[in-house]
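protien #1 (seq + structre)
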Amino acid sequence: MKDKNFVPYHPKQEPKYDVSISARAVKDIFKDAADFYTRPVACPGGFKADVFFIDGLVSGGDIADYVLKPLMSATTEANSADELVEELRRSEIYAANGRLVPDMDKLCFFLVNGFAVVVVEGAANALAFETRTGEKRSISAPNVENTVKGSKDAFVETIRSNTSLVRRHLRTPELRIKEKIVGRQTLTNVSVLYIEGITNEAMVEELEKKLDDIDVDGVLTMAVLNEYLFERRSLFPKLIYTERTDRFCFELMGGRPGILVDGMPVGFLVPATLALIMKTPEDRSENNIVASCLRLLRYAALILTLLLPGVYLAVRGFHSEMIPEVLLNSILESKQKVASGTPFEVISLLLCFELLQEAGLRMPQNIGQTIGVIGGLVVGTAAVEANIISPVVLVVVALAGVAGYTLPNQDFSNAVRVWRFIIVLAAWGFGLLGVQLACLLLLMSLCAMESLNVPFLMPFTTADPSRIIGNMAVRPVGKEKLREKELQTNNKRSRK
């Protein structure tokens, strides 16, 4: 029977250290580690022990007060080292979190996770006591998902701090947190969170199974989860990330399971859908009429940033008769001194826009935005004055670029940028027919996408107009009583 005192170990990890627990074996494993420390201790009763810890991961004061002091002043009637270990675990040492360690693999695991390990000479088992340092990044306001009226506490890199933030928003005892260890070298703590009685248990079990099947050296970026949790790859995200705790908790109440990864200052939500991507937490902070108008504006901006350059190129090159005469004369007049063709103008200006955007992201934060704005103005103005680019193309590309910034999710925005180029190339070759074929291909790929057996385009794939309207608009809180049908939640009713 599995001992509940043991921290879960990575299922793919084979035993590395096939030796019995001893102080010499521990010192040999960490022999070249400058931050590894050993403290010999003479225990009452003539027993000898060694306390091991890694500097920087533990609090020296906690080790001195809660481990070393009780260990040196312990009174024991133990006749063997094993009896002493059991006494120390049950009654002598004051540390709140004490674990029995049966082998060298788990002993090393505890050491690198901020535990102080006590090895008594001659004992078969060791003891591990949690003495983690309190040094960590303090909880602050979100940096990417700006909030005006919402909560100001964003996720940090420490997973236990993140679970405490979730607990402060969701005080229900039904909140469940299941931990997995992922990564052969990083041994990263990945936690699955859900509300029992609401979230579909089958969805949680499938998510846990997928996490167990991940076999990589390390989980240091979110790309690992996005690729390994979902077999079929796609440009569009199947995993939504957020740094806002209120949004994370709101979706947990809606029936979605969430994922927290130690070392990542974001929370992940599955399954990802287009309706979820286009929502923002601020929708619930505004009047529902204002929020509905803003959400509809985001959908309009999505269509604009995706299609505007391609449609302009197709109409200008193949279907000039569709342009009003006055506007066509203005376009032709501005085009007279421009030597390059319209396809070159559109594609080159889109590439320049992408270069400026990447440069702004890579520059230091305080000057990145300035470089992007000034660079765009200088390059665009200079290109027009040099008769390299026509003013109309500059307006079209700039409008499409600005519309893309309204999309709430960066991964989704990046996928839209790639498809924008695909549509432009199709328009260059086949006109509006190419735009239609590219849009059809995009729609087919989106219809084929699923995340934990939930369609990506849910609920736009349903025949219920009320559900479609309900996701494109924001209903009053009092009228939103049902959770999403496709999530198959155990409790259909919602009192959000």
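ok now protien #2
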Amino acid sequence: MTLEQAIFLADELKPNQIERARKIEWLSRLDQQIYCDLIQTHERENEAVGEMPEYTQETPPDTQLLARAPYDEIYRFCLETHIDLVNQEYGKYNNSAALFADAWGRLARAYHREHRPDAPGNRHLIF
């Protein structure tokens, strides 16, 4: 899923007035979390891993986000959760947050299955 596809999907399914720049910031933070919590903590044999992603308004809209199908729905739920919170729709927020947590769990479990955890001394976490 691309940056633009994630934003379009969330806007289509949950119409809102939130600026595109804010949504890009939320997606950037999610991919940074994926990078730090999953990618950086696991061995990556024969895989090229670049720098921690950071998206801005200048980021090309066709930029691929880190989570691939079928786990890329996490981006939709991330945006919907933030939209509900900003709009103070707490009942909807609770539902969106539960869907986001489930999507995160499925993504993390899949990543753990496919990549061995890195030895603690080999981790290069960014704080």
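Residues 44 and 72 are 20 Å apart (CA to CA).
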